[in-house]
Amino acid sequence: MLSRTADNLYWLSRYVERAEYLARILDATQRLSALPLAYVGTSNEWESAVATAGCATAFFKLYDEANETNVTDFLAFSTANSSSIRSCFEVARGNARAVRTALTVEMWDAINGTWLELKRYGNGPTSREEFSRFLRWVQESSLRFDGSAYRTMLRNDAYWFSRLGVYIERADNTARILDVKYHLLLPKNERVGGALDYFQWAAILRSVSALTAYHWVYRESLQPWLVADLLILRDEMPRSLASCYEAIVRNLDSIAGAYGRQGPAQRQARGIRTRLQNIRMDGIFQRGLHEFIGEFIVENNRLGALITEQFLT
Amino acid sequence: MIAAFDEMKEQNGSVRPAYGELTRWLDEMPPDVLDYRRREAELIFRRIGITFAVYGEGEAQERLIPFDVIPRIMSGTEWRLLEKGLTQRVNALNAFIKDIYGAREVLRAGIVPDDLVFRNPAFRPEMSGQDVPHDIYVHVAGIDIVRVDAETFYVLEDNARTPSGVSYMLENREIMMRLFPELFSRHRIAPVENYPDELLATLKSVAPSSASRDPNVVLLTPGVFNSAYYEHSFLADKLGVELVEGRDLFVKDEIVYMRTTQGPRRVDVVYRRIDDDFLDPLTFRPDSVLGVPGIMSAYVAGNVTLANAVGTGIADDKAVYSFTPAIVKFYLGEEPLLKTVPTWRCREEEHLAFVLDHLHELVVKEVHGSGGYGMLIGPATSKVGIEQFRAKLKTSPKNFIAQPTLALSTCPTCVEQGVAPRHVDLRPFVLTGRDRVRIVPGGLTRVALKEGSLVVNSSQGGGTKDTWVLDG
Q: Would you report the helix, strand and coil content of chain B in percent, each value rounded to 5?
């Protein structure tokens, strides 16, 4: 297939995935900020939301402080933010339009319908209820797009590239949450916060839609090191780093199989997966959770660059 | 207002046979059903994203072309007449272009004046003495036809460069079948859905001889910002070929390749929907970022087929148009089956004088204009408007031609006040391959939605209709 087509499909999926992630962050932050201060400590949740979204630098160029109004606007509706939910959907739809022939009707319908409906939300919600509805709608739109892709696309390179976009973005998002919140997830003997952090852990899980999953996997109340374990190493957790890399390797292998050759992208992906397979949580804590996550983000980005180089240009 | 031929009703009010079933059906139907279906059609169109961009309107970047749910119907007899005329015309245009870039017999015989060719911006000196695969230049032509009475069809304009609109022909039919299945069960209508297959067969038939047995065909688009982008992607999809932009292609050792996820792949036929000017920055406009540097060298070397060929604009120029009856006779030795509108070429002094005296009754068009921009329709223009146009015409008469205002036929159309006659034209698409000419029955009917208006262009408030060719 055309390199440009593959590139568009890859980024289309990344942007839709990112929009959903932003909606989850905003949803979790809204819940946290609604709790009495005594439950969440004194940290500024809105500031941390901007950091988790990975756009703190851009944000503080425009604003002096982070509060509900400017953060929701910046992350959800701003056209000045190239990664706001609105911008994500606009870019995604632009990409979709550029490669319409590579999409199924259902996928086009999903993304074009989302884009049309986005206009209804104008420049922002008028009330909290409406904003909550908006966030739900964003998640549903992403689910619909993802579901359409999953259920209607031919299993060929177009599908594999679009899946790669999803998983690389997803791995990056999960890693970012961990990167910002790592200090809340230290092992038993290093813990400082105490019960105060309970709602923070819940918020982390919520932003990767894993709160219920946690209880099913561990069958105990929230423990910070288990939250880290769930998000990093558990294969059965679809947003964990390990599970994302399982999928990345699988899709890159399918591409290699169809094209009859392996390349640097395949080797890099397998390298990262092997590291995730061979390490345990206490090992990660020993090396430092923050360092581990930092390295992961760099390696994940490197894989993105290798994919671009090998296939998309 | 001009009394026009009505496609549905005779002058005495009786309904023509082709419209009999439709009329009965319209009469049976409660009036709000039509309105309801019309809104449904619009929703579907918006949902699939069949939009076009209007140049010069920042706001409305993506607009819908209004779709009228009442079909335009032709009998099989009428169509066969038209089909013959179209085939004849396109054969003559192909022969003309081959001659212009080859032996130039038509010029030596004095049929067409030299300077009309050599000083024409659409003339491509690069093509002189250049062979094209299988001697075919115009692989896809859109011939604009208007009808003035039962037997008389005029060619209003030939489009021999990159004619568009065929996606509307196909989508209009799809929508109609979805919205009015009961109407289709009451008629036998020639299908149009095989157009993409015919187009692909045509394109493959003209691949260069050095191509592999299954030639690689691509559709070259200027990109998403082009007004016809929807059509480009739609067609690529139906043809099952890659939709490429200039940056997806490159030329090495006079061979065209496309960049794929598996490395370079050779391209044999480029169905290009990009103008000559932008095709190759090394040969034509150096500032073009839409084209493919070096593609002309591959073309000249005979390693790639461009459809349509470079330089076909010489045949659809509005000044050359006035010579087409003579062109048909010269190459084919036949009388033209389709009429040509009498045309005054303002470049000639006598013609100009006549035109200046009769502006209020003529249509004046720019020689190289398209899309209905910059034209004057005398009878529909105010005195002030005419005077302004007169000034423009006097400063550059060469750029204009004038024609009598034709009474375009009318067809019943849904308007605010119910169903009323509106003027229509027809653009059938004529495909020319190595083996034969293919025309899918029908074409794109465009309708001027404003009462009395004769301008059917979508950029000027025109709409479209499904076009039916019936049995018998």
A: 35, 25, 40
For residue B77, give both structure tokens: 């007899």
Q: Across the interface, which of B46, B233, B261 has its CB nearest the CB of A101?
A: B233
Within the 109-128 window of chain A, which residues sit less than 8 Å (CB to CB) from chain B? 109, 112-113, 116
Q: Which residue of B has its CA nearest to A259?
A: B262
H-assigned helices in chain A: 3-33, 37-40, 45-52, 56-62, 68-72, 85-98, 105-118, 128-152, 157-181, 198-207, 211-218, 224-232, 241-259, 264-278, 281-287, 289-307
Residue A121 has pLDDT above 50, yes or no: yes
pLDDT confidence of A21, banded at 50, 70, 90? very high
Inform me whether the C-beta atom of residue A4 falls under 8 Å from chain B C-beta atoms: yes
Residue-wise pLDDT for B176-223, tens only, equals 999 999 899 999 999 999 999 999 999 999 999 988 889 999 999 999
CA-based nearest residue to B182, from B53, B9, B283, B33: B33
CB-closest option in A3, A98, A113 to B260: A3
Nearest by CB to residue B224, choosing from A97, A101, A112, is: A97
Asked whether the ipTM of the predicted complex exceeds the cut of 0.85, the reply is no
Residue position matching structure tokens 């072309």: B65
pLDDT of the residue at B434: 94
Say how far apart CA B330 and CA B95 lie, in whole Å.
10
Phi, psi of B156, rounded to the nearest 5 degrees: -90, -30
Residue A298: its pLDDT value, please? 96
What distance in Å separates residue A265's CA from the closest CA in chain B? 13
- Classify burial at A109, counting beta carbons within 10 Å of its beta carbon; exposed 0-12, middle 13-18, buried 19 or more: middle
CA neighbor of A70 nearest in space, from A18, A134, A15, A124: A124
What is the distance between the alpha carbons of residues A78 and A58, in angstroms, rounded to a whole number? 12
Chain B residues whose C-beta is within 8 A of a chain A C-beta are 46-49, 223-224, 229, 233-234, 236-237, 242-245, 247-248, 258-262
Of B233, B237, B248, nearest to A4 by CB-CB distance is B248
Whose structure tokens read 């059938």? B428
Residue B177 CA to residue B154 CA, distance in Å, equals: 30
